[in-house]
Design brief:
There is one protein chain. The protein is mostly helical. It folds into two domains: about 90 residues, Orthogonal Bundle (Arc Repressor Mutant, subunit A); about 80 residues. It is about 60% helix and about 10% strand. The chain has a three-stranded antiparallel sheet. Strand 2 and strand 3 form a beta hairpin. Helix 6 packs antiparallel against helix 7.
């Protein structure tokens, strides 16, 4: 929960009250699902939880005439700002391993036939190439948009591109070893 908590508190830390939907749109425009462990559906739950903890306060509620749900306008509290800065500093200085679910099947690659393993690696390579191209296009398009992506968010996507390129390079090297019979 700390990633989403940091993101939400950070977005509200500019002291501009926002609706959950606005926050969701902002995170989507940053492609946050590609670099942060968030689920857009958890935004509203997290906002409500942080309101209960007095990190946020609801400053206005828009009543809906139609069947649409009411929308709360959230604002960060002093406690919320303090929590945000504490989380931000902690995340800057705390090194955590990157949890990659891909390492689980790698652990058991010796149970697959060489043909199946080669096909799986080649599929993953193709998928990584598509991801890299897609992320590079997102960064390029966002820079040219009328409402460009903030430079620090584009830099975040560039880190994701670098990780993907590194994984692609590693797979190419590993695939050679599989084809040469050195692995598994």
């Amino acid at each position: 929960m700390s990633a989403i908590r940091t993101l939400l508190l950070g977005l509200l830390n500019d002291k501009k009250p926002r609706h959950g939907y606005e926050i969701k749109q902002e995170l989507e425009s940053w492609n946050a699902e590609k670099w942060a462990n968030i689920s857009y559906g958890s935004i509203y739950f997290a906002l409500k939880k942080m309101e209960e903890e007095n990190l946020l306060k609801s400053v206005d509620e828009v009543r809906s005439i139609s069947n649409k749900p009411d929308r709360n306008l959230y604002e960060i509290t002093q406690s919320g700002t303090e929590q945000f800065l504490m989380l931000l500093r902690k995340q800057w200085w705390e090194m955590k391993p990157i949890i990659d679910p891909f390492q689980v099947p790698l652990t058991f690659m010796n149970y697959m036939s060489n043909d199946e393993l080669i096909a799986a690696f080649e599929y993953r390579m193709d998928s990584l190439k598509i991801r890299i191209k897609s992320l590079e296009r997102m960064v390029a398009i966002r820079i040219q948009d009328a409402k460009p992506m903030p430079a620090h968010i584009a830099q975040n996507l560039k880190l994701n591109i670098a990780h993907s390129k590194t994984e692609l390079e590693w797979i190419e090297e590993t695939l050679k070893k599989v084809k040469q019979g050195e692995l598994p």
